[in-house]
Amino acid sequence: MTTTANRSGTRPIAVIGGTGPAGMGLALRWARAGEAVIIGSRNEERAQQTAAAIQHRAGPDANVSGMENSVACAAADILMLTVPFEAQAALLKQLKPAMTEGSILIDATVPLAASVGGRASRTLGVWQGSAAQQAAELVPREVSVVAAFHNLSAEMLNGDAPLDCDVIVCSNDSDAAQLTRELAAKIPGVRPIDGGPLQNARIVEQITALLIGMNIRFKGHAGIRITGLPPTAYR
């Protein structure tokens, strides 16, 4: 697939669901780091409005555009999925024809169940084992799926301060996992860690419900740090 590279020669990143808080935050951080970012949305006008807002915050040298989701998928081979679990399957089925061979889908979906009052209290059981494994069944065979970025605070991502959080990256494709760790390392304060095969995404997804509960109780922005590993683990 041929994609348009930004000034530093990197491949553009299409953030599918990029008008939500998590998608906007990741797009902002990558735009500030010099990555070319495409905001994807069901509504092209909303995508363009969000892209313009991120461009304004990221600075005049930022490269941010907005497109309808399927057009965004066709324009990039690095796809970042940031949608609620209830929208994941239907959206991936819709976008499957637009995904090209060799694309990488980075999935941050968490199968959260809402308790009374709408607060997420636990994760739902997924027949495939995890939301990421479900995604792997729904995309073309030639698309590599990576699970990552589940446990970053959307509010912190949309701010200006460095984050105090590790990003655990799980995939069956070592090259796709390495690229994802490189993207994570571009976010100030984030340390990427190899979390092993995609089946481990189930554990990482479940941590999110715990963190949300802590954030509600203590009115904070909890993340995770993995300690006791050698420095090589964070490369």
Question: Care to count the β-strands?
Answer: 10
CATH H-tier superfamily: NAD(P)-binding Rossmann-like Domain
**Rg, Å, rounded:** 16 Å
Tally of helical runs: 8
Strand-residue proportion:
15-25%
Q: Main β-sheet: number of strands, strand sense, barrel status?
A: 8 strands, mixed
Major sheet: arrangement of strands: 3-2-1-4-5-8-9-10
- Large-scale geometry: globular
List SSEs in N-to-C order. Answer: EHEHEHEHEEEHEHEHEH
- What's the CATH first level? Alpha Beta
- What fold name goes in the CATH topology slot? Rossmann fold
Proper CATH architecture: 3-Layer(aba) Sandwich
Unreliable sequence segments: 1-9
Instruction: Determine the structural class based on helices, strands and strand pairing.
Output: alpha/beta
Multimeric status of the protein: single chain
Straight-line distance between termini: 28 Å
The total number of structural domains is 1
Mean pLDDT across the residues is 91
Q: Percent of residues in helical segments? A: 25-40%
Architecture overview:
- The structure is a single chain.
- This protein is of the alpha/beta class and 235 residues long.
- It has a single domain, classed as NAD(P)-binding Rossmann-like Domain (Rossmann fold), CATH 3.40.50.720.
- Helices cover 37% and strands 20% of the residues.
- The protein contains 8 helices and 10 strands.
- The chain has helices at 21-32, 44-58, 69-75, 85-95, 131-138, 154-157, 174-185, 201-218; strands at 13-16, 36-41, 63-68, 78-81, 104-107, 112-114, 120-123, 144-147, 165-171, 190-194.
- The strands form 2 sheets. The protein has an 8-stranded mixed beta sheet with strand order 3-2-1-4-5-8-9-10, with helices on both faces. Strands 6-7 form a two-stranded antiparallel sheet.
- Helix 2 links the parallel strand 2 (36-41) and strand 3 (63-68).
- Helix 1 (21-32) crosses helix 2 and helix 4 packs parallel to helix 5.
- The longest helix is centred in the last third of the chain and has 18 residues, at 201-218.
- It is globular and about 40 Å long.
- It starts with 12 loop residues before the first strand and ends in a 17-residue tail after the last helix.
